[in-house]
Amino acid sequence: MGSNEIESSGSEVVTIDVNVAKGLIQNGYVYLDVRTVEEFEKGHVDAEKIINIPYMFNTPEGRVKNPEFLKEVLSASNKEEHLIVGCQSGVRSLYATADLLAEGFKDVSNMGGGYLDWVKHDFPVKIPITNEKEL
């Protein structure tokens, strides 16, 4: 077992690189962004099917796991859905993918390198327009 694999109740997390992820996203896979809403709103992967469900929240005490994560994913998709899970650098998405596989999701892949790697490859991103009129 390699250093970047996590065993999760018999299902091994598959980590794919951003090039593979981009192809799958363009072919109808759902991109599940598990970063915080604040991170998501600063910019995210440009995907036709994208869901933002934070795996962790920032609190004054530091990051805490979102206790409703699995429930929220289940309400936004189903266990048969083809999901690519991504975060900022690939750590949270690894744990989120393991949790989803343990929950019985059939086709979930972790996007290695996360949003930072996606941006580094100059792949399409969406950055919401803010109301600030700064030059």
Automatic annotation (TrEMBL):
<feature type="domain" description="Rhodanese">
    <location>
        <begin position="25"/>
        <end position="127"/>
    </location>
</feature>
<dbReference type="InterPro" id="IPR036873">
    <property type="entry name" value="Rhodanese-like_dom_sf"/>
</dbReference>
<protein>
    <recommendedName>
        <fullName>Rhodanese domain-containing protein</fullName>
    </recommendedName>
</protein>
<dbReference type="GO" id="GO:0003824">
    <property type="term" value="F:catalytic activity"/>
</dbReference>
<dbReference type="InterPro" id="IPR044684">
    <property type="entry name" value="STR17/STR18/HARC1-like"/>
</dbReference>
<dbReference type="InterPro" id="IPR001763">
    <property type="entry name" value="Rhodanese-like_dom"/>
</dbReference>
<dbReference type="Pfam" id="PF00581">
    <property type="entry name" value="Rhodanese"/>
</dbReference>
